[in-house]
Amino acid sequence: MSTYAKELEIAQLAVQRASILTKRVFHEKAKGTVSKDDKSPVTIGDFGAQALIISALKANFPEDEIVAEEEAASLRTNEALRQTIWDLVKTTQLSDPSAESALGGEIADEDAMLTMIDHGNSKGGASGRIWAIDPIDGTLGFLRGGQYAVCLALIVDGQVQVGVLGCPNLPVDDTAPLTGSVGEEGGSGVLFSAVLGQGASSRPLTTGGLAEQKTIAMRPLSDMSAATFCESVEAGHSAHGDQAEIAKKLGITNPSVRLDSQAKYASIARGAGDIYLRLPVKATYQEKIWDHAAGDLIVREAGGAVTDIQGKTLDFSVGRTLANNKGVIAAPASVHSKVLAAVQEVWNNKK
Ligand SMILES: Nc1ncnc2c1ncn2[C@@H]1O[C@H](COP(=O)(O)O)[C@@H](O)[C@H]1OP(=O)(O)O
Ligand SMILES: [Mg+2]
Ligand SMILES: [Mg+2]
Ligand SMILES: [Mg+2]
User: 232 alpha carbon to ligand 1 midpoint, in Å?
Assistant: First the structure.
Protein backbone atom coordinates (compact mmCIF):
# COMPACT_ATOMS: atom_id res chain seq x y z
CA MET A 1 0.00 0.00 0.00
CA SER A 2 1.40 3.43 -0.85
CA THR A 3 1.92 6.06 1.81
CA TYR A 4 -1.27 7.74 3.03
CA ALA A 5 -3.46 5.36 0.98
CA LYS A 6 -6.01 4.96 3.79
CA GLU A 7 -6.06 8.68 4.57
CA LEU A 8 -6.64 9.44 0.89
CA GLU A 9 -9.46 6.91 0.57
CA ILE A 10 -11.28 8.11 3.68
CA ALA A 11 -10.76 11.77 2.77
CA GLN A 12 -12.20 11.24 -0.70
CA LEU A 13 -15.23 9.32 0.56
CA ALA A 14 -15.81 11.86 3.33
CA VAL A 15 -15.71 14.76 0.86
CA GLN A 16 -17.94 12.87 -1.55
CA ARG A 17 -20.54 12.24 1.19
CA ALA A 18 -20.40 15.84 2.42
CA SER A 19 -20.81 17.04 -1.19
CA ILE A 20 -24.12 15.14 -1.41
CA LEU A 21 -25.38 17.11 1.58
CA THR A 22 -24.22 20.45 0.13
CA LYS A 23 -25.89 19.64 -3.20
CA ARG A 24 -29.19 18.99 -1.44
CA VAL A 25 -28.96 22.43 0.19
CA PHE A 26 -27.77 24.07 -3.04
CA HIS A 27 -31.05 23.10 -4.70
CA GLU A 28 -33.16 24.37 -1.78
CA LYS A 29 -34.33 27.93 -1.75
CA ALA A 30 -34.01 28.21 2.04
CA LYS A 31 -30.38 27.60 2.94
CA GLY A 32 -30.68 28.56 6.62
CA THR A 33 -28.14 31.35 6.24
CA VAL A 34 -26.89 33.06 9.39
CA SER A 35 -24.31 35.79 9.77
CA LYS A 36 -21.11 35.10 11.71
CA ASP A 37 -19.31 37.58 13.99
CA ASP A 38 -17.11 38.66 11.08
CA LYS A 39 -20.33 39.30 9.04
CA SER A 40 -19.59 36.44 6.64
CA PRO A 41 -22.44 33.98 5.96
CA VAL A 42 -22.71 30.36 7.06
CA THR A 43 -25.49 27.97 6.00
CA ILE A 44 -26.98 24.67 7.10
CA GLY A 45 -24.84 23.18 4.33
CA ASP A 46 -21.59 24.39 5.94
CA PHE A 47 -22.52 23.03 9.39
CA GLY A 48 -23.87 19.73 8.08
CA ALA A 49 -20.90 19.05 5.81
CA GLN A 50 -18.46 19.81 8.63
CA ALA A 51 -20.27 17.40 11.00
CA LEU A 52 -20.19 14.58 8.42
CA ILE A 53 -16.51 15.03 7.53
CA ILE A 54 -15.37 15.20 11.16
CA SER A 55 -17.41 12.11 12.05
CA ALA A 56 -15.59 10.17 9.29
CA LEU A 57 -12.19 11.40 10.51
CA LYS A 58 -12.92 10.67 14.17
CA ALA A 59 -14.04 7.12 13.30
CA ASN A 60 -10.86 6.39 11.36
CA PHE A 61 -8.16 8.57 12.90
CA PRO A 62 -9.33 9.32 16.46
CA GLU A 63 -5.98 10.75 17.58
CA ASP A 64 -5.65 13.34 14.82
CA GLU A 65 -6.23 17.06 15.39
CA ILE A 66 -8.74 18.98 13.28
CA VAL A 67 -8.78 22.62 12.19
CA ALA A 68 -12.20 23.40 10.68
CA GLU A 69 -13.82 26.68 9.76
CA GLU A 70 -17.15 26.44 11.61
CA GLU A 71 -18.14 26.09 15.29
CA ALA A 72 -21.38 24.92 16.88
CA ALA A 73 -21.92 27.73 19.45
CA SER A 74 -24.76 29.43 17.55
CA LEU A 75 -26.52 26.07 17.04
CA ARG A 76 -26.65 25.34 20.76
CA THR A 77 -29.05 28.27 21.21
CA ASN A 78 -30.92 28.01 17.90
CA GLU A 79 -33.03 24.88 18.11
CA ALA A 80 -34.79 25.30 14.77
CA LEU A 81 -31.53 25.65 12.86
CA ARG A 82 -29.97 22.76 14.78
CA GLN A 83 -32.89 20.49 13.91
CA THR A 84 -32.84 21.39 10.23
CA ILE A 85 -29.15 20.51 10.11
CA TRP A 86 -29.70 17.28 12.03
CA ASP A 87 -32.46 16.25 9.59
CA LEU A 88 -30.01 16.74 6.74
CA VAL A 89 -27.08 15.01 8.44
CA LYS A 90 -28.97 11.90 9.54
CA THR A 91 -30.41 11.39 6.05
CA THR A 92 -27.19 11.83 4.05
CA GLN A 93 -25.38 8.59 3.23
CA LEU A 94 -23.30 7.17 0.43
CA SER A 95 -25.42 4.73 -1.57
CA ASP A 96 -22.62 2.14 -1.52
CA PRO A 97 -22.90 0.33 1.86
CA SER A 98 -19.21 -0.60 2.07
CA ALA A 99 -18.16 2.99 1.35
CA GLU A 100 -20.63 4.29 3.95
CA SER A 101 -19.43 1.80 6.54
CA ALA A 102 -15.79 2.78 5.89
CA LEU A 103 -16.78 6.23 7.20
CA GLY A 104 -17.85 4.72 10.53
CA GLY A 105 -21.61 4.91 10.20
CA GLU A 106 -24.08 7.45 11.48
CA ILE A 107 -23.69 10.18 14.08
CA ALA A 108 -25.64 9.09 17.20
CA ASP A 109 -27.78 12.16 17.89
CA GLU A 110 -28.03 15.95 17.76
CA ASP A 111 -25.69 16.45 20.68
CA ALA A 112 -23.08 14.21 19.10
CA MET A 113 -23.41 16.26 15.93
CA LEU A 114 -22.59 19.47 17.82
CA THR A 115 -19.64 17.77 19.49
CA MET A 116 -18.39 16.66 16.06
CA ILE A 117 -18.59 20.20 14.69
CA ASP A 118 -16.62 21.52 17.67
CA HIS A 119 -13.85 18.92 17.25
CA GLY A 120 -12.63 21.27 14.52
CA ASN A 121 -11.27 23.74 17.07
CA SER A 122 -7.59 22.73 17.05
CA LYS A 123 -5.10 25.59 17.06
CA GLY A 124 -3.05 23.89 14.34
CA GLY A 125 0.74 24.17 14.43
CA ALA A 126 4.05 22.69 13.41
CA SER A 127 3.86 19.18 14.80
CA GLY A 128 1.71 16.11 14.43
CA ARG A 129 -1.17 15.18 12.15
CA ILE A 130 -3.70 17.97 11.57
CA TRP A 131 -6.66 17.86 9.20
CA ALA A 132 -7.85 21.17 7.72
CA ILE A 133 -11.52 21.38 6.69
CA ASP A 134 -13.48 24.00 4.82
CA PRO A 135 -16.92 22.35 4.63
CA ILE A 136 -18.08 24.87 2.02
CA ASP A 137 -15.42 27.12 0.56
CA GLY A 138 -16.97 29.97 -1.40
CA THR A 139 -20.17 30.19 0.65
CA LEU A 140 -20.96 33.40 -1.25
CA GLY A 141 -20.69 31.47 -4.53
CA PHE A 142 -22.83 28.70 -3.05
CA LEU A 143 -25.53 31.27 -2.21
CA ARG A 144 -25.21 33.00 -5.60
CA GLY A 145 -25.59 29.75 -7.54
CA GLY A 146 -21.92 29.67 -8.55
CA GLN A 147 -18.87 27.56 -7.80
CA TYR A 148 -17.97 26.25 -4.35
CA ALA A 149 -15.76 23.50 -2.96
CA VAL A 150 -15.72 20.99 -0.10
CA CYS A 151 -12.10 21.00 1.09
CA LEU A 152 -10.06 18.60 3.17
CA ALA A 153 -6.30 18.27 3.66
CA LEU A 154 -3.97 16.38 5.97
CA ILE A 155 -1.01 18.39 7.23
CA VAL A 156 1.78 16.42 8.95
CA ASP A 157 4.48 18.34 10.81
CA GLY A 158 3.52 21.46 8.86
CA GLN A 159 3.60 19.87 5.38
CA VAL A 160 0.46 19.15 3.37
CA GLN A 161 0.54 15.42 2.60
CA VAL A 162 -2.98 14.76 1.30
CA GLY A 163 -5.40 17.16 -0.40
CA VAL A 164 -8.97 16.56 -1.57
CA LEU A 165 -11.39 19.02 -3.19
CA GLY A 166 -14.99 18.26 -4.06
CA CYS A 167 -16.27 20.73 -6.67
CA PRO A 168 -19.96 19.87 -7.16
CA ASN A 169 -20.57 22.53 -9.83
CA LEU A 170 -17.58 21.95 -12.10
CA PRO A 171 -18.08 20.06 -15.38
CA VAL A 172 -16.52 16.60 -15.62
CA ASP A 173 -14.97 17.51 -18.98
CA ASP A 174 -11.57 19.19 -18.43
CA THR A 175 -11.87 20.98 -21.76
CA ALA A 176 -15.32 22.52 -21.13
CA PRO A 177 -15.15 26.32 -21.16
CA LEU A 178 -14.19 27.62 -17.71
CA THR A 179 -16.86 29.80 -16.17
CA GLY A 180 -17.78 30.93 -12.69
CA SER A 181 -21.50 30.69 -13.20
CA VAL A 182 -23.31 27.40 -13.32
CA GLY A 183 -25.37 26.60 -16.40
CA GLU A 184 -28.95 25.34 -16.50
CA GLU A 185 -28.18 21.81 -15.40
CA GLY A 186 -24.97 22.75 -13.58
CA GLY A 187 -21.84 20.64 -13.80
CA SER A 188 -22.09 17.15 -12.43
CA GLY A 189 -19.14 17.66 -10.17
CA VAL A 190 -15.53 16.58 -9.84
CA LEU A 191 -13.46 15.17 -6.99
CA PHE A 192 -9.79 16.21 -7.11
CA SER A 193 -7.02 14.72 -5.01
CA ALA A 194 -3.29 14.59 -4.48
CA VAL A 195 -0.76 12.96 -2.19
CA LEU A 196 2.66 14.56 -1.81
CA GLY A 197 5.08 12.98 -4.28
CA GLN A 198 2.37 10.84 -5.89
CA GLY A 199 0.79 13.22 -8.43
CA ALA A 200 -2.69 14.68 -8.74
CA SER A 201 -5.85 13.07 -10.04
CA SER A 202 -9.54 13.63 -10.62
CA ARG A 203 -12.71 11.57 -10.90
CA PRO A 204 -16.39 12.38 -11.30
CA LEU A 205 -18.19 12.92 -7.99
CA THR A 206 -20.70 10.14 -7.36
CA THR A 207 -23.29 9.38 -4.67
CA GLY A 208 -21.73 6.00 -3.84
CA GLY A 209 -18.21 4.60 -4.04
CA LEU A 210 -15.28 6.29 -5.76
CA ALA A 211 -15.40 6.47 -9.58
CA GLU A 212 -12.37 5.60 -11.71
CA GLN A 213 -9.64 8.22 -11.47
CA LYS A 214 -7.34 9.80 -14.02
CA THR A 215 -4.11 11.74 -13.66
CA ILE A 216 -4.36 15.50 -14.13
CA ALA A 217 -1.67 17.98 -15.13
CA MET A 218 -1.36 21.69 -15.75
CA ARG A 219 -1.38 22.92 -19.34
CA PRO A 220 2.11 23.47 -20.80
CA LEU A 221 2.30 27.23 -21.25
CA SER A 222 4.71 28.17 -24.02
CA ASP A 223 3.07 31.48 -24.89
CA MET A 224 2.18 33.68 -21.92
CA SER A 225 -0.17 35.80 -24.03
CA ALA A 226 -2.42 32.76 -24.43
CA ALA A 227 -2.74 32.21 -20.67
CA THR A 228 -6.04 32.33 -18.82
CA PHE A 229 -5.93 33.58 -15.27
CA CYS A 230 -8.45 32.90 -12.52
CA GLU A 231 -9.45 35.19 -9.68
CA SER A 232 -12.15 35.57 -7.01
CA VAL A 233 -15.60 36.80 -7.92
CA GLU A 234 -15.63 38.91 -4.76
CA ALA A 235 -13.69 42.15 -5.15
CA GLY A 236 -13.26 42.18 -1.35
CA HIS A 237 -11.30 38.90 -1.42
CA SER A 238 -8.62 39.73 -3.98
CA ALA A 239 -7.53 42.91 -5.74
CA HIS A 240 -9.06 42.83 -9.21
CA GLY A 241 -7.39 46.08 -10.30
CA ASP A 242 -3.86 44.96 -9.37
CA GLN A 243 -4.50 41.57 -10.98
CA ALA A 244 -5.59 43.20 -14.26
CA GLU A 245 -2.41 45.27 -14.24
CA ILE A 246 -0.27 42.18 -13.69
CA ALA A 247 -2.01 40.31 -16.51
CA LYS A 248 -1.38 43.23 -18.80
CA LYS A 249 2.31 43.31 -17.88
CA LEU A 250 2.53 39.62 -18.73
CA GLY A 251 0.92 40.22 -22.13
CA ILE A 252 -2.17 38.21 -21.22
CA THR A 253 -5.03 39.22 -23.48
CA ASN A 254 -7.76 36.78 -22.41
CA PRO A 255 -10.18 38.23 -19.87
CA SER A 256 -9.84 36.77 -16.37
CA VAL A 257 -12.20 33.99 -15.34
CA ARG A 258 -13.85 34.78 -12.02
CA LEU A 259 -14.91 31.87 -9.88
CA ASP A 260 -15.47 31.34 -6.18
CA SER A 261 -13.58 28.95 -3.94
CA GLN A 262 -10.66 26.56 -4.38
CA ALA A 263 -12.29 25.55 -7.69
CA LYS A 264 -9.65 28.03 -8.98
CA TYR A 265 -6.78 25.79 -7.81
CA ALA A 266 -8.57 22.71 -9.17
CA SER A 267 -9.24 24.36 -12.53
CA ILE A 268 -5.65 25.36 -13.20
CA ALA A 269 -4.42 21.95 -11.97
CA ARG A 270 -6.42 20.21 -14.70
CA GLY A 271 -5.47 22.68 -17.43
CA ALA A 272 -8.84 24.43 -17.67
CA GLY A 273 -7.01 27.66 -16.77
CA ASP A 274 -3.36 28.53 -16.16
CA ILE A 275 -2.71 31.02 -13.37
CA TYR A 276 -4.45 31.84 -10.08
CA LEU A 277 -3.76 35.28 -8.63
CA ARG A 278 -4.95 36.32 -5.16
CA LEU A 279 -3.54 39.72 -4.28
CA PRO A 280 -4.41 41.13 -0.85
CA VAL A 281 -7.08 43.81 -0.63
CA LYS A 282 -6.39 44.54 3.03
CA ALA A 283 -2.91 44.36 4.54
CA THR A 284 -4.32 42.97 7.78
CA TYR A 285 -6.21 39.94 6.39
CA GLN A 286 -4.62 36.59 7.20
CA GLU A 287 -5.55 33.78 4.82
CA LYS A 288 -6.93 30.65 6.54
CA ILE A 289 -5.19 27.30 6.16
CA TRP A 290 -8.44 25.54 5.15
CA ASP A 291 -8.80 27.93 2.19
CA HIS A 292 -5.50 26.79 0.64
CA ALA A 293 -4.07 23.49 1.95
CA ALA A 294 -5.76 21.08 -0.48
CA GLY A 295 -5.51 23.38 -3.51
CA ASP A 296 -1.85 24.17 -2.89
CA LEU A 297 -0.90 20.47 -2.93
CA ILE A 298 -3.13 19.59 -5.90
CA VAL A 299 -1.57 22.36 -8.01
CA ARG A 300 2.00 21.47 -7.00
CA GLU A 301 1.42 17.79 -7.75
CA ALA A 302 -0.03 18.72 -11.15
CA GLY A 303 3.17 20.54 -12.14
CA GLY A 304 2.59 23.95 -10.61
CA ALA A 305 4.36 26.19 -8.14
CA VAL A 306 2.50 28.06 -5.39
CA THR A 307 3.88 30.98 -3.40
CA ASP A 308 2.71 34.18 -1.78
CA ILE A 309 3.34 37.58 -3.37
CA GLN A 310 6.86 37.67 -1.93
CA GLY A 311 7.77 34.32 -3.43
CA LYS A 312 7.56 32.40 -0.13
CA THR A 313 5.90 28.98 -0.13
CA LEU A 314 2.69 28.79 1.89
CA ASP A 315 3.49 28.00 5.52
CA PHE A 316 0.85 25.75 7.08
CA SER A 317 2.80 25.28 10.32
CA VAL A 318 1.90 28.46 12.21
CA GLY A 319 -1.66 27.86 13.33
CA ARG A 320 -5.11 28.33 11.82
CA THR A 321 -3.99 31.10 9.49
CA LEU A 322 -1.17 31.62 6.98
CA ALA A 323 0.29 34.31 9.24
CA ASN A 324 3.66 34.21 7.44
CA ASN A 325 2.20 34.77 3.96
CA LYS A 326 0.41 37.49 2.02
CA GLY A 327 -1.64 36.65 -1.06
CA VAL A 328 -1.21 33.71 -3.43
CA ILE A 329 0.36 33.15 -6.86
CA ALA A 330 -0.24 29.71 -8.39
CA ALA A 331 1.16 29.03 -11.88
CA PRO A 332 2.88 26.33 -13.94
CA ALA A 333 6.33 25.82 -12.40
CA SER A 334 8.02 26.83 -15.68
CA VAL A 335 6.55 30.36 -15.66
CA HIS A 336 6.01 31.00 -11.95
CA SER A 337 9.11 33.21 -11.57
CA LYS A 338 7.94 35.36 -14.48
CA VAL A 339 4.52 35.81 -12.91
CA LEU A 340 6.10 36.57 -9.53
CA ALA A 341 8.31 39.25 -11.10
CA ALA A 342 5.26 40.95 -12.64
CA VAL A 343 3.38 40.77 -9.33
CA GLN A 344 6.28 42.35 -7.47
CA GLU A 345 6.63 45.17 -9.99
CA VAL A 346 2.96 46.08 -9.61
CA TRP A 347 2.98 45.59 -5.84
CA ASN A 348 6.15 47.63 -5.23
CA ASN A 349 4.85 50.47 -7.41
CA LYS A 350 1.88 50.82 -5.12
CA LYS A 351 4.04 51.59 -2.07
N1 LIG B 1 -10.59 40.09 3.00
C2 LIG B 1 -10.42 38.86 2.52
N3 LIG B 1 -9.35 38.59 1.75
C4 LIG B 1 -9.16 37.35 1.25
N5 LIG B 1 -10.02 36.32 1.48
C6 LIG B 1 -11.10 36.52 2.25
C7 LIG B 1 -11.36 37.81 2.80
N8 LIG B 1 -12.49 37.74 3.50
C9 LIG B 1 -12.93 36.45 3.42
N10 LIG B 1 -12.10 35.71 2.65
C11 LIG B 1 -12.18 34.28 2.33
O12 LIG B 1 -12.06 34.04 0.97
C13 LIG B 1 -12.60 32.74 0.73
C14 LIG B 1 -13.31 32.72 -0.58
O15 LIG B 1 -12.43 33.10 -1.56
P16 LIG B 1 -12.95 33.37 -3.03
O17 LIG B 1 -13.65 34.70 -3.00
O18 LIG B 1 -11.72 33.36 -3.85
O19 LIG B 1 -13.87 32.26 -3.34
C20 LIG B 1 -13.52 32.44 1.85
O21 LIG B 1 -13.05 31.32 2.54
C22 LIG B 1 -13.50 33.68 2.69
O23 LIG B 1 -13.51 33.42 4.03
P24 LIG B 1 -14.89 33.29 4.85
O25 LIG B 1 -15.32 31.87 4.72
O26 LIG B 1 -14.54 33.61 6.23
O27 LIG B 1 -15.89 34.24 4.22
MG1 LIG C 1 -13.22 29.20 2.55
MG1 LIG D 1 -16.21 27.91 4.30
MG1 LIG E 1 -16.90 31.11 5.45
Answer: 9
